Amino acid sequence: MDEKILTLHPKGKKGVHIDRTKYEAMKKTVLQLLGKKGLTHDELTHAVTRTLKGKFDGSIPWYMEATKLDLEARRVIERVPRDEHDVYRVRKG
Predict the structure, then answer these.
(1) What is the CA radius of gyration of the chain?
(2) DSSP 8-state class, residue 89
(3) 66 conformational bin, left if phi > 0, alpha if psi -120 to 50, beta if neither
(4) Residue closest to 69 by CA, chosen among 21, 10, 28
(5) pLDDT over 80 at 1, yes or no
(6) Angle at Cα 59 formed by Cα 2 and Cα 77, nearest 5°?
(7) Spelled out in words, what is the top-level CATH class assigned to the domain 4-90?
């Protein structure tokens, strides 16, 4: 049986149980992309989809959202409010 993890939510809502292997693949991709520059939610979704298309089994946008919220709750990435669209980036320090 595949190992599952329970994700966290930045607003304290209930997380979701997801496959650890899928979580780790998504986490690695999200951090690589955000390590280069901050991205809006749409930019991040498109970039992750482009990167993992054909290499990921499951709904890329769904897993990306669950992983992004978990990383935000764990203070690995942060959401920076902007006029048009908020930007996500890797937290410094």
Answers:
(1) 13
(2) E
(3) alpha
(4) 10
(5) no
(6) 85
(7) mainly alpha
Burial annotation 21-57 (CB, 10 A radius, 16+ → b, else e): ebbebbbebbeebbeeebbeeeebbebbeeebeeebe
Asked whether the beta carbons of 80 and 86 are under 8 A apart, the reply is yes
Tokens representing 8?
């966290």
Closest CA relative to residue 43, chosen from 55, 56, 30: 30
The dihedral sign for the CA sequence 79, 23, 54, 91:
positive
Residue 12 DSSP one-character state: S
Nearest to 24 by CA among 72, 71, 90: 71
pLDDT digits (tens, 9 = 90+) for 17-66: 999 999 999 999 999 999 999 999 999 999 999 999 999 999 999 999 99
